[in-house]
Amino acid sequence: MAHEHQQDIQAWLGYAAMDLSAAQTLWQYHRPMPCEIICYHCQQAAEKAIKALFIRFDLPGGIPRKHDLSFLLNQLQQEAPVSPRLRRMADVLSVYGIIARYPNEVEIDEARVRQALDFAESILQWAKSQAEA
User: Fold this and answer.
1) Which DSSP letter does residue 67 get?
2) How many CB atoms lie within 10 A of CB 34?
3) What are the b/e assignments for 60-70, b being 16+ CB within 10 Å?
4) pTM
5) CA 78: distance to chain centroid?
6) Which of 35, 72, 80, 93 has its CA 20 to 30 Å from the CA of residue 87?
7) What are the two backbone dihedrals, phi and then psi, of residue 81, each rounded to the nearest 5 degrees?
């Protein structure tokens, strides 16, 4: 893998980690808890982590300008194993990318926020493992 590709992959994974860190910080310290914003950052973390793999596998057409995590995973399925569990996490997080643009569409409680944080972290770890494979 070319050195510049490795730098790009690490940059995308770094942005994903920053989104996750922002979500975790808001979760821990911001009251009242901005549930929609936390979940949006979780969706963004997962999206950027997945998009790092488009560079890793040098897919034709480059990184799609799409935000639907399931769509993105479908594009990667020939290159990286995508489990049903990972797809379910992506489906849940994809909704939060829309919510931030259209507030009050879905009621988000603390349990959903905790789930979003867990799912984003899981997808980021999966993407890191695929990037290193």
Assistant:
1) -
2) 16
3) eeebeeeeebb
4) 0.91
5) 19
6) 35
7) -70, 125
